[in-house]
Amino acid sequence: MLVPAVLHKDEVLKKFSEFIYSYDYFFYTGYVGGHRLPNVDDSDDWEHWVSVDSDGNVLGYLAYFVDHVNDSVNRFGMFSFIRDSPVFVLDCYRRLEFLVKNYRRVEWRMIGGNPVESAYDAFCEKHHGRKHVLSAVVKDRNGIYRDDVVYEVLRDGFPVH
What we know:
The chain is an alpha+beta fold. The protein has helices at 9-19, 23-29, 86-102, 117-126; strands spanning 2-4, 46-52, 58-67, 72-80, 105-111, 130-139, 145-154. The chain has one domain (2-154): Aminopeptidase. It is built from 4 helices and 7 strands. A 7-stranded mixed sheet has the order 1-2-3-4-5-7-6, with helices on both faces. A hairpin with a 5-residue loop joins β6 (130-139) and β7 (145-154). The longest helix has 17 residues, at 86-102.
């Protein structure tokens, strides 16, 4: 179940600090240096959520920016504290479903090589979205350049230009 992250702020920051130098955190932030923790406080435009299990354990974090002027959502951040947590995956899927039904446009990015790519591809295809691959944009700690992948879904489909 998703609940506001601010209700578990200290625990979220503690859990993130355990991963901050990991390869998983690189996939979350998209850069190797400047390890900083996320700001989990809601604002008028940002929503921050945590996935919790039936015992109240924090499983993962989800945040995104709501652009009210353009009726769109972007700047996603999703991070699982428990590898392959079905509860977290389902919570994120349900939230994405909610967002594509309630906003005109939903966009998210991913660093190439992220294990979630096939799930993102399937979600994007299900909603007749687009996937754009920007080649060799981000250098990881091993010096390998990785793609920057952008997904977008429009509620009413894509206009013909």
